[in-house]
Amino acid sequence: MNREAIFLKRLLAVIAGSGIVLGLVLISSSNYLLFHTLAEGFSIVIAYAMFLIVWNSRKFLPNQYLQYLGLAYLFIASLDVLHTLSYKGMRIFADESANLPTQLWIAARYLESVSLLLAPLWVKRKFNLPLVVGGYTGVFVLLVVAIFSGNFPDCFVDNVGLTSFKILSENLIVLLLAASMVGLWRQRDAFDSTLLTMLMGAILLTIGAEIAFMFYVSVYGLSNLVGHLLKILSFYLIYRAIIKIGLEDPYRLLFRELQQQQTALRHEQIHLERHVQERTAELSRLNQELQQEIAKHHVTEKALQQSEERYRLLAENIEEVFWLMQPTPVERVLYVNPAYQTIWKRSPEELYRNPRLWIEDIHEEDRDQVQQTFIKFLQGENDYQVEYRLRRPDGSIRWIFDQGFPVRDDAGTLVYVAGIAQDMTERKQIEQELRMKDDAIASAISGIAFGDLDGRLTYVNRSFLEMWGYDDPQEVVGRFSVEFWQMEARAQGVIAALQRRENWLGELVAKRKDGSVFAVQLAASMVVNAEDRP
């Protein structure tokens, strides 16, 4: 999509939006009740739609901020429905005063502001779905019962105006919304920049709406009109931020977090390899020094003590478990450093008393493999490098990377085995999350493809192959993406837009392997890493 088309599209959107706002203003001057119903109806429909879209897209939304908001807005919109139906002039409820709709309004805004404040807590952690649904259901029922039974504080008194409770509540809600912006900003690294801007703008407009509602003296007054218009704009931004991304670009957030986790995994892997290499090199050097000192026999006692002290300082201050054992004639653990207690949650003395604890603490599914690898290592058939799961005394599981090397005397006889065991649980968790996201992409019902900056395909999922009529990814990967579209010039325009870092949304005619064609709704965007590089 070229720049002129983008400008025209945005201009039409501005004109249409301005027309809608102008139309609502004109309607409000002649029939305020109709204006209020339309304004609230817009926000209610958007909120319910947001819940449905976020709920059905939850498998593809990597952070749970959006899922939590979608669920919260289901209950917020339900309070807004009651507020709309109870508005002065609707004549649905027996209470025709302006107090009832104002109470329902303030209850909905409390629920909205608290939800926006809590939502950043779930950016990097999972919430308990039944607990959250139960909590919101309980709060919703409690608010409705309190309001309709007359146990909720009055918010509006005819011929007087707003009560002090209503004004105080609006101020408190503004503070809660401001705090929610701070919380969202602190978690900004977890969001696409466009999404973050829209969410911050929506909250800011909501604050403006609440300030307007502080000053109205009539349900048909100017400040009420301004507040509802700001609410419409706020929900429009939420539509752009959540529903648009959920419908038109449902994988952008997933790809972004996937890229971040891949980068983190690479850094973790590089760090782990460097760490192990450094520790292994240091231990090998010290081992060689020790062997040389033993072989010489004439080394002084002081030199031996110095070597021993260096060895002890290194062993006792590394995060990994350093272990030394005697394999024959009786298998015996001679030494483990303090890191053993940190990772294994056992004291070294327990292991010295019962050397079998080392193998018994290994997960039963991994135990045989570790034993066989160690036996072959002692026989000189292979190196001892193995990954296994450790089951701690409290039942928790940790992943361990363990490696050992032989210590021999001058005759080449194996005397000791020394080794390093490292906790790699965090790395395993990152790998598991990456596999889950890879599976989600591979099994998605939409056709998904990745390509390089030149437009050459590097990955396609199963749905893409089925849609285009191919059986094997090798038939597709490596080819230019323009080959799969009927109008290659227009497809080239998509690539050009992405190279300019512009998102592209539109319809193209695709070309199957057998030559047949079909229409496709295409959403394309650039995937960048944590350094904002493609």
Q: How would you describe this protein?
A:
Its EC number is 2.7.13.3. It catalyses: ATP + protein L-histidine = ADP + protein N-phospho-L-histidine. Its main location: membrane. With about 525 residues, this protein is an alpha+beta fold. It has three domains: about 230 residues, Up-down Bundle (Rhopdopsin 7-helix transmembrane proteins); about 170 residues, 2-Layer Sandwich (Beta-Lactamase), CATH 3.30.450.20; about 80 residues, Beta-Lactamase (2-Layer Sandwich). About 60% of the residues lie in helices and about 15% in strands. The protein has 17 helices and eleven strands. The strands form four sheets. It has a five-stranded antiparallel sheet with strand order 4-3-7-6-5, with helices on both faces. β5 and β6 form a beta hairpin. The radius of gyration is 33 Å and the shape is extended. It starts with a helix and ends in a 10-residue tail after the last strand. The model has no long low-confidence stretch (mean pLDDT about 80).
